[in-house]
Design brief:
The protein is mainly beta and about 180 residues long. The chain is built from one helix and 13 strands. The chain has one domain.
């Protein structure tokens, strides 16, 4: 019995000595919580761009050419938690530049909303660069975090009158899905 008590006493003293010596010899590292990483801004191009044609049918005046297919590509940038900034990439082939309406739905929370991307008037000093003919001002929406589904549309219309008829036909509305943190 005596031997076991001596052995336990020796082990206890050795452990106490190591603990006493380790405190001043080891650098002190305060435990701190790492702040959550700030997500980098991520831009998602809509998987389906907006495609439309706009023109006129005149009975009095000649139209200025055949209507062309115009493509606008919306983007969504999530740069702050729960917010998305919608924009469009410049379209050098746009014959017209209508406003774009973006409607969105958060699939996680059920929140819905819409925002308008308004046309930015180009400078009127010629020549106007092709990428400046059709630009839109970005718009920010508070979507909340989660998976967002958005559609972009320019709206179809027909106008009639004594001088002729104008029209816009939407072939495909823009569609995009993306994550917001």
């Amino acid at each position: 019995m005596r031997r076991a008590a001596i052995h336990r006493s020796f082990v206890a003293r050795a452990a106490a000595s190591v603990a006493v010596l380790a405190v001043p010899l080891c650098p002190s590292a305060a435990a701190t919580a790492n702040p959550p990483p700030v997500p980098a801004a991520s831009t998602t191009v809509f998987q389906v761009p907006v495609r439309f044609v706009e023109g006129c049918l005149s009975t009095v005046f000649a139209c200025l050419g055949l209507p062309s297919l115009t493509t606008l590509t919306p983007t969504a940038t999530s740069d702050a938690p729960g917010t998305v900034t919608f924009a469009t990439e410049p379209s050098p082939w746009a014959s017209t530049c209508p406003d774009v309406t973006v409607s969105w739905r958060n699939l996680n929370t059920g929140a819905v909303g819409a925002t308008a991307l308004r046309r930015v008037e180009p400078g009127y000093d010629p020549p106007i660069a092709p990428q400046d003919r059709c630009r839109h001002a970005p718009a920010t929406a508070l979507t909340g975090s989660g998976t967002i589904v958005a559609t972009a549309d320019v709206g179809a219309f027909t106008r009639g009158g004594p001088a002729g008829v104008g029209y816009r036909l939407v072939f495909t509305p823009g569609i995009g899905t993306f994550q917001v943190h």
